[in-house]
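User:
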Amino acid sequence: MKTSDQDRREQLYRPMREEGVFTWDWMYGEEYALADIHLISRDFRRELSMATERLGHIFSKVVPVLQRADDSLLLELGVPREALGAVRTVVNEIQPTVIGRFDFAQTNEGLKMLECNSDTPTGIVEAFYVNERACRFFGHEDPNAGMEADLTSAFAGALKNYQRRGYRTENIWFSSLDWHEEDKGTTQYLLGVSGLPAQFAPLEQLRVWEDRLYVKEGDELLPVDVLYRLHALEKLATEQDEDGYPTGEHVLSLIENRKLAIINPPSAFLIQTKALQALIWNLHETNQFFTSEEQVSIEKYMLPTYFENRFAGIADYVTKPIFGREGGGVVIFDAQGDVLEKDQEEFYWEQPMIYQKRVVLPDIRVQTAQGPYAGHLLWGSFWIGGKASALVARVGGPITNNMSYYLPVGIDG
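Assistant: Predicted structure:
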């Protein structure tokens, strides 16, 4: 690393580390957050927001129907049997998630949505906190200016929705894995901006006792009425304690029986499954359920996605596990079925897969600690409290994974 590059990195990221909010600009001994900035036009910024809001409307429209659907459909979409009752819990029929993020590729045909992370999205601190400081450092306008307020408003709205439905909301906790620096930092950041009278507790301290959730602190059991959890529901469904007791299934029953309020709400999980994209595309192709305006949005921003391979011999395609995250389990094929790229992580391979038409992420050249890097650009656009909010950019290989770079973004001009 050149001295000038090292100095720039330290000037940008050291104050954030010292504040204790963003401490993972290096992860696992590798550079994660770049001391560089990518500039976009105001028109492109508006287009990202428009795509996010239109797709948010489409996904929101489907969720109430799924919550009333037969178990067989939900199981086909990948909902664990242990979670069937929980995901039917209605908190807000208009806003099925509090914090979501759509991921987009910028193509010659415009923005194309690759997936929606609606259950436990990350990149939040980078978008709502780091980006503003990076823009200030490089002297550019922040496209996410003032959007921390969206998070505060969304948490307040979520709490009110639970209160309207008669839930207990006095004891509010935010929880994640204690050892995971990014998850813990993200959770503690959200606690701070939420405006809620809440506390942090590691997931390891959560206990179920006499049909209620508690935080164990020493010899005390502190009740949990509302839980923000950076912990995926599909993982929760299978978790057991040391004695083999199905703790996760019990927690899901607490959610189903309205003895525990969670953020994101259980309806968010119905959007998290990529199988929903296949269902939406099927309804689009058969001209069912959606209005003509919604059909236009689906055609414009979504990709052909199926439960079986309809691309063989016709077009390049991608297989994705229905609950994969950070590129895990993704394989890119050419039309003849030959593998072009394959994720190397060990997770998610056992899950059902969807088949999606391949789009190529645009090329981008950025400055890293090791010098110039030629990669591919992925856009994340947050969907907060039912509206478009901050954006985040990642740079990596053809498959964007957990260690792809975070790239600050500014407004050009």
